[in-house]
Every structure is written in C-alpha cells, then in structure tokens.
Amino acid sequence: MTEQTRFILNETDLPKYWYNLNADNPIPPAPILNPQTMEPVTPDFLSVLFPMELIMQEITTDRYIEIPEAVRDVYKLWRPTPLLRARRLELALDTPAHIYYKHEGVSPPGSHKPNTAVAQAYYNKISGTEAMTTETGAGQWGSALSFGCNIFEIPLEVYMVKVSYTQKPYRRIMIETYGADVYASPSDRTNFGRSILAQDPDTPGSLGIAISEAVEVAATSEGKKKYSLGSVLNHVLMHQTVVGEEALKQMDLAGEYPDVVIGCVGGGSNYAGLAYPFMRYKFTEGKNTRFVAVEPTACPTLTRGTYTFDYGDTAKMAPIVKMHTLGHSFIPAPIHAGGLRLHGMAPSLSALVDGGYMEAVAVHQLTTFEAAVQFARAEGIIPAPETAHAIRVAIDEALDAKEKGEERIILFNMSGHGHFDMTAYLHYYSGNLEDYEYPQAAIEAAMADLPQVSL
Amino acid sequence: MTEQTRFILNETDLPKYWYNLNADNPIPPAPILNPQTMEPVTPDFLSVLFPMELIMQEITTDRYIEIPEAVRDVYKLWRPTPLLRARRLELALDTPAHIYYKHEGVSPPGSHKPNTAVAQAYYNKISGTEAMTTETGAGQWGSALSFGCNIFEIPLEVYMVKVSYTQKPYRRIMIETYGADVYASPSDRTNFGRSILAQDPDTPGSLGIAISEAVEVAATSEGKKKYSLGSVLNHVLMHQTVVGEEALKQMDLAGEYPDVVIGCVGGGSNYAGLAYPFMRYKFTEGKNTRFVAVEPTACPTLTRGTYTFDYGDTAKMAPIVKMHTLGHSFIPAPIHAGGLRLHGMAPSLSALVDGGYMEAVAVHQLTTFEAAVQFARAEGIIPAPETAHAIRVAIDEALDAKEKGEERIILFNMSGHGHFDMTAYLHYYSGNLEDYEYPQAAIEAAMADLPQVSL
User: Does domain A6-13+68-110+241-447 have CATH number 3.40.50.1100?
Assistant: First the structure.
C-alpha cells in the first residue's frame, strides 16, 4: 500500500464555474407548471418564492455559470474536498476494481448540502430578501441552510418534520447553533399546518407537509420572505456540480477515468453534483461511462414510480414538475435514510433515467447498513445512512468486477458522514431494523391523485 | 476576503518522523516509579503493560523517531490535516491579530487521538500482542483506539466510565462500529471493579477507576493482553507531534510564525502534539513564542494542583510519575469537557509549566461555550467542549491584541469536533450549565494521600 490514497486540490483549484447540464442534455427540460392554472409558470410567479437570479439559473441553457467570489470565499472553509482511493476497502473485497470516493462529509454541517445553501443564501442576500424559510426532514438540509444564512446574516425559519424534531434533536441543536429558528411541522404558524393538526394532532408530520408550510410562509409574506429548496430544482443541482468539477481534476491526478459513477438519490442533488460534469463528456465526447442512481426499496421513485407531472408538495402549492413520482401524498416507511424519503425526483435526473442515459437501482435497508459497517471498518469514515446506499452499490460493482476479472474504475459520492445517525447504527446492531418493500397498491392509489395536465 | 484561508499539504508532505522533546528539553525527565516499591521502574516492569518498542520510545532521548511506513499509510486516510486561518472570526472580533487553527477534527473518529492510537496498535501488533485493553471517558479515546485496533486486527476491550456508557451512547456505538467490546466501568470483569461495585452498586464510575480496570486486565493476562493509554506518557505525546510538524510547514506556507501557541489540556497530548515542535525552536533557536495550556476551572491541575509524584490511577496499580496533580482519588465536577477531567497531567508538560517555559490558564465552562458558538457561527465548525477551552483563550488573545493594537499571530489546536456533544450545547442554550470552582479543601485533602516518595 505505497500508492497514493488522497488526491488533494489547493484553494486555487476551487472551480470558478458551475456546470449546467441543460446546455448539453439531448432531452429538453419539460416546463414547470403553475399548480393553480396547470400552465407553464412565468418568472413572476416563481419570484414569489425565489429571487430572480435563482429563477434565471433555473431556466438558463448557458453551459457555465460563474460562481460569485463571495460564495467561493465561503466554499474555501472546506473546499476543495478530498478524493480518496478506497485502497483498504479494495483489499477487504479482494477486488481488481479501483474504488474512489469524493468526501463531501468534510463540510461544517457534514454533507454536500452547503454547496447550494451558501449560494442560495448569497443570491437572496443581494436580492434584498429579509428572511428565508425552508423545510427539513432529519435535519441535513436545515443545518446546511442555517449555516449559509448565518454567514450572510439572513434570518431563517426551518420547518422540521415533527417526528425528527422530537426524536432526533441533535441536528436541530446544530441548526440552532447556526442561529436559525426551528419549528416542529405541522406547526400552528401556517394555515396548512393548522388544518393538518385539526385532523390529527398527533401526526408525525412529513416532508411534503413541511414543504407546504415553508412555502406558505414565504408566499404570504408580501415579498419579504423567500423559500429555499435543498434539492430537485435545476439551480440546486447546478450548485452541486462543484463536486464533480473537482472530482474530474482529482481523477486526472489519479491518472484514471471512472467506468461507473454512483450516488444515492433522494431529490437527486448530491448525485447530480458528482455525475453531471462526467455526463457532460458522455454527451460531448461520447465517453462510455455508466451512471447508477441508488434509491431505497422503501421509496422506489425511479425504479417503480411514474414519470409524469406531479406537485412538489402535499398541499399542492409548490410548482408542478415532470419527474418520477410516487405521488405527492406519499407517506414513507420509517427507514433511517431520511434524506431519501421524498416522493419525487429532480426532473433533469428523471429525464436522464427515462432516456436511458442513467441506470437506477433500489436497495434494501439492511444490506446498506452491512455495506456501511464494512466501509467504516476499512476506511474509517462512518457514513450517513443515505450515503450507505451508494456504498452498497459501489461494493456490488467491485464484487462484480472481481467475478469478471475486470479492473473497473468506480467513483461514488461520499455525500455525508453519519455522526448524527448513530441511533440508526444501534438499531442495526440490535437487530431492530427492517427491510421495506413499497406496496404496489399505494403506488397505484397515488397515481389517481395526479394533477390533470394536458401537455 | 481574497487572501488564502486553508493551507493544505499533500500526502508527500506527511511527516516521516515524530519529534521527541526530551532531546532538547533543558529539564531532565523525572524517573517513573513502581507503585509497589516506589523505586524507578525497569523496562521489564513496564513490559507487563506495554510492548518494548513503546517502552523504548518512552525513555529515549533520540530527537527524531521514524514513523513506520504502515502507520504513515493509515495516517494518509486523513492526514495531513488542514491548517486554516480564521478570517471570519478575525472579522467578527475586529482584531488585527491573525488566528490560525490546525483542524484535527477531520480524522475518522473526529479528534487528534488516532495519531497515537494507530501507532500504539501497530507496535502492539508487531510485538505479538493478542489483545488490548483501555479505558475511555466520554469515548474519544475509546473510539480512536478501536479504529486503530480494527485496522491492525487486534481485539480490544474498552472500559467506559459508566455514566458516559449510559448517558452518551453515541461514542459507544462508534466504538462498536469499529469492532471493539465496550464494558461499563466499574464492571464485574475485574477484582477492582467488583470491589467498587460492592461498596456502591450505583456509582457513576470515574476515569481513575476505568484505568485501574483496564490495567488489571492486562496485568493479569500472562502477557497476552497489553494496556494502552491515550495521553500523559512521553510516547503518546510524541506520536502527536505529527500535528505540530505539519503546522510548522503550513505556517511557512502562510508566511508567518506564531507569537502564541494555544491548546486545551486534559492529559496534555493534543497540546503537546501541536506545541512541542514549536517549543523545539524556543530551545534550539531562542524563538520567543509564548505557549498557553488551557484547562477547566473544574479540574485546575496545572493552575492549582501540586507538582509532585502521584499515582496514575485510583487503584494505585499504574506507575507513579512526577506531574501536576489534584490527587489520584480526584472526583471531577460534571463539566461537559470529559476529556479534560483527569487528576494528573503529562509529566513533560508539567515540567515545562513548572520551569516557566509554558503558561497555564483555567477557564470557566460557560465562557468556553460562548466562545464555541462564536467560533461555530464564524468558521462553521462546531467544536468539542474540550476544544472550546483553547478557542476561548485564542479569542481572548485576539481581543487583547486588538486592545494593544498588535498584529499578534495566534495558533491553536482545533483538537476535535463536537458532533457527539450536541447535548452539551442544548444544556448551554437551555441555561442548564453551571460554572464550577474546584474546592480548595478537596485539593488539600487529596495531598494527604500522595505516595511517600523519597526522591
């Protein structure tokens, strides 16, 4: 083991541009629809929720968007992140494959999320936004946006799914450390929250409900407050491409190019961030790279959902987009990978899967924890349960390469650490974790409630 | 804010040697004494607990000890660690001082501890040790040694102070993830543990008791099991000097040299690791650097303890060393900085304080959390409560420099992150934290039970 383990970039190598896949994607993006009229939205409609610069980033087909110096300056607190070759894991698997991982868990909040949180806070700041709202499930996104809003001195309200607010207080304390206000959702602060509480005061809440509350607060603030989403939308995924742009340079340092690029997907942003800069060379240079998006069997959006127009939230207030969906009233099984429990998926990523440019695979919960522990013992890092989905498939690829005697080059996104998920590991060791197969009947029922879109 | 923030070294810059302060320290080290005979120990006596290579490192006066390639290879999983200039903190404080911090929180277990854990596991492995034992308080050391023992495939028993085992399960789960066995101490696995339980079945335990149990298991294993200590001893501090050796190169990259080097001290290892390579130039080149060791007022070993010979553990089985001590039967107040609650201090560091080469200062708990939150909001990283002690004094130095209009260069060790300490932050926000002043009567009482040493 004398070859290089870590591939490090200097501050001067920090990317100066985000990459916009819409410039090269052969599949044109479907329009975003107004949830009331079912007609394509105007920038004016979106401007109730988002500052104009982000709306322009959402619809542009420019290939490269310059990263503002103020954003790069914050990135420098933890970026460029390391790329590591998982030599010890390769040894443990006795595989001829080379396994690389991009370590996004080194950011202060512990995942890739601040790549867009910092950018969104910055654009809101220069647009005069007085306060921001968002939702969070287990708290990764909430802690990232509170980190970003704190830096640019914007007050933030976070609507946190009630069951997480109560049972997983540590991310909430992190959010509060960065200075944001956190409310258990459903809350009595919104009409939608109050209506849910009237039906069921003991509801555990859901991400769809929390999104509705955060959207309602922004939409009814007379332009003072803006809403922020941590995944799904084009501009969010684009901000994450710093991950892949760095990884391209680091694979160069390693003298290799990936045969397969892997990531876990909830809304799709961490995986798009790593994959899209490599996807560019599939489209522009005909590179033969495989792309594998990994989701939980408990939330099989890409593998069993329908590719169609659906609402982004439970209350049908958020815009309608064309995506793989399990239905906007989806209620997830209680798997520990909270960040992967969204009913929808990024439209651009859905289109790539639908167009055959990207593979999708669903994995069970227990086997992801098995992979997580194997990774932790080999490489030291304890991954987030979400990230463990990518690790599972990276290991499976390495074992497949071994069986076939191939020196396959595997790259995956180590999207976050599991320091706030140790209870999940405890449940795994105690034998208290289950596998969940999402019921076919629920999928069919959800399809009955889709918006009636004539496009 | 366009100047450089992070100073990064490549894998090829990873130090090849540890630095041994005993080669340059004008104060000769006091002998280590056998707790039964009160006479200087022989290597044979120590060999019941430690492998011979570590015993030789404990007593050598060689200036540099080569780091084995197998150890460097594991270090490469996270080293060299970044050095950062805290530009945002400087701005927040409006100080002309330059504040630098060495970020040891990026290691897989989250602190500087694996620097010695990996080395100790390696030397035990090549010496044929069949299993290892150790103690841990809140779990930083236990998780680091389980990480190291897992890499070199040595079974490990960790005796974890019972109150932490019960109330802070997350580090325990991390230890188990790396494959070690964890027992609440006092346990029924040792004579000493059983004797304590017979007196008080509900005892919360203490670090002194846990050390005694781990030492007893090794000492009664007929040479099969060895014991490992995470701080205090010379070889442990020496393994930590990779921190300071890297920081020297990184300060060079920054084009500055520290006027003051700061660290928190429990047993002294993280601070010695950063400070001793700089102390070398105080001794060999007459550099005028100030060195400030920071401890809690609740455990004021250096500022109010006695510099004398004392036992390393409660059961009086561990060797006797000359150090600043609050007495081996010390029972700490329940401050959250668990790693700083030791009755003793590294002998070499005690000698430097006694000799006037190093300053010592004690700070209260509440003011350390205030500093921690200020640091987190400026720099993003949420520090461990132990590390917050160093941050408190770094901020105080920066404010003092501001008052005096000095461009003071400040360097401190960011020894670990606080991801497993969020409950402490919650208590701080809730107003449930207290300051503790260690009672003078307890200090005087402890001095009555010192070993009768005639040196």
Answer: yes
- Domain range list for chain A: 6-13+68-110+241-447
CA distances (Å), A35 to each of A381, B136, B250, B310, B446, in order?
A: 43, 56, 55, 74, 73
Which DSSP letter does residue A31 get? P
Backbone angles phi, psi at A5, to 5 degrees: -100, -45
Mutate to test the interface with A, among B4, B79, B88, B177 (most CBs of A within 10 A): B177
Measure B25 CA to nearest chain A CA, in Å: 35
> Which residues neighbour A214 within 8 Å (Cβ) at sequence distance 6 or greater?
A133, A134, A135, A157, A158, A159, A227
pLDDT tens, A208-244? 889 999 999 999 999 999 999 999 999 999 999 999 9
Cβ pair A429:B107 closer than 8 A: no
CA angle B12, B14, B17 (to 5 degrees): 125
Q: Indicate the pTM of the whole model.
A: 0.96
Residue of A203 and A446 predicted with greater confidence: A203
Picking from A4, A84, A382, the nearest residue to B177 by CB comes out as A382
The model's pLDDT over B203-261, given as tens digits with 9 standing for 90+, comes to 988 888 899 999 999 999 999 999 999 999 999 999 999 999 999 999 999 999 999 99
Instruction: Calculate mean pLDDT across residues B52-70.
Output: 97
Interface of A with B in 184-243 (CB under 8 A): none
Interface of A with B in 290-349 (CB under 8 A): none
The pLDDT tens digits of the residues spanning B421-432 come to 999 999 999 999
Q: Which chain B residue's Cα is nearest to A378?
A: B151
Q: Is residue B61 within 8 angstroms of chain A, CB to CB?
A: no
The owner of tokens 């810059």 is B13
